[in-house]
């Protein structure tokens, strides 16, 4: 038989455990890669710039999941251009035959906030990335001509 004096510490312990679990699970979810699926760690961010003024219009972010060996990429317009940029695009490739794009080549989608996430298994390979967007008559794109985060 459980008495009230035994029940109160048990209820308090269960409440404390629940609170602790909710706090510890919030941290990894925030650090896991934003819009990529759970378990993705941020690797790097690449500027999207125009040719004329080298102005930054957004970023392509690259993530990696060590347990699956997959990379994830997302292209985002800078916050001031959310909803105003157009034709936002992201691609991720192994530099050979495997490439994933958002939007796909056959799509008529016109993104105004971000493109992606796109996923590709690149364990022990280089990630070849490309991101672009249009704003104010200019095209902004990544200037990464070689594979990144190889291995």
UniProtKB/TrEMBL annotation:
Signal peptide as annotated in the record: 1-31
Keyword terms of this UniProt record: Signal
Stated name of the protein: Spore-associated protein A
Organism: Actinomadura barringtoniae
């Amino acid at each position: 038989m459980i008495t009230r004096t035994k029940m109160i510490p048990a209820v308090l312990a269960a409440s404390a455990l629940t609170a602790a679990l909710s706090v510890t699970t919030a941290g990894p979810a925030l650090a896991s890669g934003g819009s990529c699926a759970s378990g993705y760690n941020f690797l790097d961010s690449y500027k999207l710039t125009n040719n004329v003024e080298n102005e930054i219009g957004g970023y392509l972010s690259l993530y990696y999941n060590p347990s699956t060996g997959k990379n994830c990429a997302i292209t985002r317009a800078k916050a001031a251009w959310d909803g105003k940029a157009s034709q936002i695009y992201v691609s991720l490739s192994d530099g050979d035959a495997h490439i994933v794009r958002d939007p796909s080549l056959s799509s008529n989608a016109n993104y105004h906030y971000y493109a992606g996430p796109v996923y590709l298994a690149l364990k022990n390979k280089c990630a070849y990335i490309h991101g672009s967007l249009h704003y104010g008559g200019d095209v902004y794109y990544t200037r990464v001509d070689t594979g990144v985060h190889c291995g």
